[in-house]
């Protein structure tokens, strides 16, 4: 039995609610976010931008090993976290630190991976934020498992699973969509299409009509949205989360955005894209258009802006204040297993012995 | 006393674990109404329903990836990879996530899951159905690797795997699935991490695991008829590895041959030989020998008997252990 697939298809063009000048273009939509929701989002955007800038600066100072910035993509980051309920789960990639901070994880703990003193620095279970994942698309399957587990127990949990445009070429992306659809898992897949997988542009990544169309073949309801329009993201993602929570199965959202910064500090974008292309995206910036809309509607004034800026500076100062923590040699062997094997105990003793002789000498 | 096969013991272990712990779920390819291609999951869907034993889409990375998520969220998944070589699409999930989750989160997230993999040759299977892949898993820190050679261990080790909080790659010697043995299901076996002496002997130690254990026992029987007393040690679990039992045996006998089906180069057998050489050097009367599969892709059925370590090849290696110097 085949079913008419039209209900799965994304819109003809990305959903936009506020245009680049900060003007509401679909103000009559019933899902247009409230002024309060947009103000919350804007506050998080200001913090997120400052977080990105500060982390990038810390790399240049040699105080972070690396930082893949989401500069330009902050609207996706903020909306992905803000549409979730406390018991929902977030599955981030390495570029989604701002989403993690927006979810409520301590900013300093969020940067543990990139500071290099451990892999995951926050309590993933307590925050319901999975470890940041670097092997592309692998975490999408974990999201399906978490969602399926919740559904088996009858819990209303929804899982927000993030990935980028490059990850949609991975086999695990297809397997995750397929498994989620077959098991009707309550997962919202948000693809942040920032146009580049390190240096490879989308045109070399996929011949699909859009990345959202990749959901259709798996039977997943799909939509695309202006990824620099936080109002559109909040509206579309809120709807997707609600449908997933209601038992309507997984949802795929493609957000069109742009990676304004380099892939990481180690990258040289000059080798694969021209500056003029970046310049085209600056007027589409998610912060300026949200601020323009909120000022135009009288929701944002100088005093509120100053409050948001102060909070952003507080976060930046906390990141700057974090000195490189000392390492604990015993931690090298910690938590490989619930209890160390005899071989690991021998190796830990070897390191302890080496260190004790260094002290003696 | 009742007789039970190794496959039947695994089936009973799954059934008993699912009765005892409702967080145990079983899924994979054809594990539902069919009961798995080796029937290890026979009857589980009928008894426990589709929510606890279910078929998945045909994608091994998807199966293991979903198991990771379910383990993160309160379940204890047991997934079946249909054959050894069909587990390779899941390799990234196993190595990058299953093995590392506890460590990278410093224990905040543990993955109590079991990945069952029928492995090894000896069944006349065509290519991609007879691989011995234990070295890949044993080489990966964070994975426990169990491989029973008896029905009693099949039951006991699988139940153990379903009580701990660490992930287990559970390698099932498929050529032993239908071997019947008398066992009392209530008899406890040693815990994971303990090797056992399957046959005591005084002249040399054969160290084996999984499908090689019965071959080593056969070799010891033949050797006995020729006047040579061989001890056979069954590792039972490759990780954790029991240096103590292995070294105690070699210290008693002074000679060691490691027997394994997998190709010998960079193998578990090589690791065992190196460990014995390092730790028991003063007890050894001869270099440690390895009798393993050859360093070729697993051969077609007609060549299988040439490839697999057999009694004669083991006894030839034993003959080479410098007896003339005694």
TrEMBL record, chain A:
Its EC number is 1.2.4.4. It comes from the Bacteria. Gene3D superfamilies: 3.40.50.970. The keyword Oxidoreductase applies. It is an enzyme of class 1 (oxidoreductase). Residues 46-314 form the Dehydrogenase E1 component domain. It catalyses: N(6)-[(R)-lipoyl]-L-lysyl-[protein] + 3-methyl-2-oxobutanoate + H(+) = N(6)-[(R)-S(8)-2-methylpropanoyldihydrolipoyl]-L-lysyl-[protein] + CO2. Keywords: Oxidoreductase, Thiamine pyrophosphate. This is 2-oxoisovalerate dehydrogenase subunit alpha. It comes from Cryptosporangium japonicum.
TrEMBL record, chain B:
Residues 4-179 form the Transketolase-like pyrimidine-binding domain. It comes from the Bacteria. Its cofactor is thiamine diphosphate. Pfam families: Transket_pyr, Transketolase_C. Keywords: Oxidoreductase, Thiamine pyrophosphate. The keyword Oxidoreductase applies. InterPro entries: THDP-binding, Transketo_C/PFOR_II, Transketolase-like_Pyr-bd, Transketolase_C. This is Alpha-ketoacid dehydrogenase subunit beta.
């Amino acid at each position: 039995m085949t079913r008419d697939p039209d209900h799965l298809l994304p819109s003809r063009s990305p959903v936009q609610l506020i245009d680049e000048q900060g003007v509401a273009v679909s103000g009559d939509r019933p899902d247009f976010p409230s002024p309060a929701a947009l103000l919350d989002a804007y506050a998080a955007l200001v913090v997120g931008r400052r977080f990105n800038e500060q982390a990038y600066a810390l790399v240049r100072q040699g105080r972070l090993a690396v930082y893949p910035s989401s500069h330009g993509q902050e609207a996706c980051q903020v909306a992905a976290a803000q549409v979730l309920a406390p018991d929902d789960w977030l599955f981030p990639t390495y570029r989604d630190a701002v989403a993690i901070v927006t979810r409520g994880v301590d900013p300093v703990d969020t940067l543990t991976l990139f500071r290099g003193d451990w892999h995951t620095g926050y309590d993933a279970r307590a925050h319901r934020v999975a470890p940041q994942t670097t092997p592309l698309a692998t975490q999408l399957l974990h999201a399906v498992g978490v969602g399926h587990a919740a559904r088996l127990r009858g819990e209303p949990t929804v899982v927000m699973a993030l990935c980028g445009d490059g990850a949609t070429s991975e086999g695990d992306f297809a397997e995750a969509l397929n498994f989620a659809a077959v098991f009707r898992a309550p997962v919202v897949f948000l693809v942040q299409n920032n146009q580049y997988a390190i240096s490879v542009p989308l045109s070399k990544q996929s011949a699909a009509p859009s990345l959202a169309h990749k959901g259709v073949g798996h039977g997943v309801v799909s939509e695309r949205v202006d990824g620099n329009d936080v109002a559109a993201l909040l509206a579309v993602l809120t709807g997707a989360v609600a449908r997933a929570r209601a038992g309507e199965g997984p949802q795929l959202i493609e957000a069109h955005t742009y990676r304004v910064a380099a892939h990481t500090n180690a990258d040289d974008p000059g080798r694969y894209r021209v500056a003029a292309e970046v310049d085209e995206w600056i007027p589409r910036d998610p912060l300026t258009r949200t601020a323009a809309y909120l000022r135009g509607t009288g929701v944002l004034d100088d005093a509120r802006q100053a409050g948001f800026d102060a909070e952003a500076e507080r976060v930046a100062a906390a990141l700057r204040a974090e000195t490189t923590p000392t390492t604990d040699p015993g931690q090298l062997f910690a938590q490989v297993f619930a209890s160390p094997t005899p071989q690991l105990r021998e190796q830990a003793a070897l390191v302890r012995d080496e260190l004790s002789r260094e002290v003696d000498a | 006393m009742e007789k039970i096969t190794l496959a039947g013991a695994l089936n009973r272990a799954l059934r008993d674990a699912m009765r005892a712990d409702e967080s145990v779920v079983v899924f994979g390819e054809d594990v539902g109404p069919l009961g798995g291609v080796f029937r290890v999951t026979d009857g589980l869907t009928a008894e426990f329903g589709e929510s606890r034993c279910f078929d998945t889409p045909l994608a091994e990375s998807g199966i293991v990836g979903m198991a990771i998520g379910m383990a993160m969220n309160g379940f204890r998944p047991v997934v079946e990879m249909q054959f050894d070589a069909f587990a390779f699409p899941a390799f990234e999930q196993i190595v990058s996530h299953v093995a590392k989750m506890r460590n990278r989160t410093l224990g905040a997230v543990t993955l109590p899951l079991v990945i069952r993999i029928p492995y090894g040759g000896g069944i006349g299977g065509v290519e991609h159905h007879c691989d011995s892949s234990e070295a890949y898993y044993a080489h990966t820190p964070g994975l426990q690797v169990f491989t029973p050679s008896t029905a009693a261990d099949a039951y006991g080790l699988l139940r153990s795997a379903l009580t701990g909080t660490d992930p287990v790659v559970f390698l099932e010697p498929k050529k032993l699935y239908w071997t019947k043995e008398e066992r009392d299901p209530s008899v406890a076996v040693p815990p994971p991490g303990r090797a056992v002496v399957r046959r005591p002997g005084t002249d040399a130690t054969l160290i084996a695991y999984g499908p090689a254990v019965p071959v080593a026992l056969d070799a010891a029987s033949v050797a006995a008829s020729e006047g040579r007393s061989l001890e056979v040690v069954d590792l039972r679990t490759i990780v954790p590895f029991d240096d103590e039992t292995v070294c105690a045996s070699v210290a008693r006998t002074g000679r060691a041959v490691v027997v394994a089906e997998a190709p010998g180069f960079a193998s578990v057998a090589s690791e065992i030989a190196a460990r014995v050489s390092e730790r028991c050097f003063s007890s050894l009367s001869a270099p440690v020998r390895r009798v393993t599969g050859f360093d070729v892709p697993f051969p077609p059925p007609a060549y299988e008997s040439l490839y697999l370590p057999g009694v004669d090849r083991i006894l030839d290696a034993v003959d080479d252990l410098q007896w003339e110097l005694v």
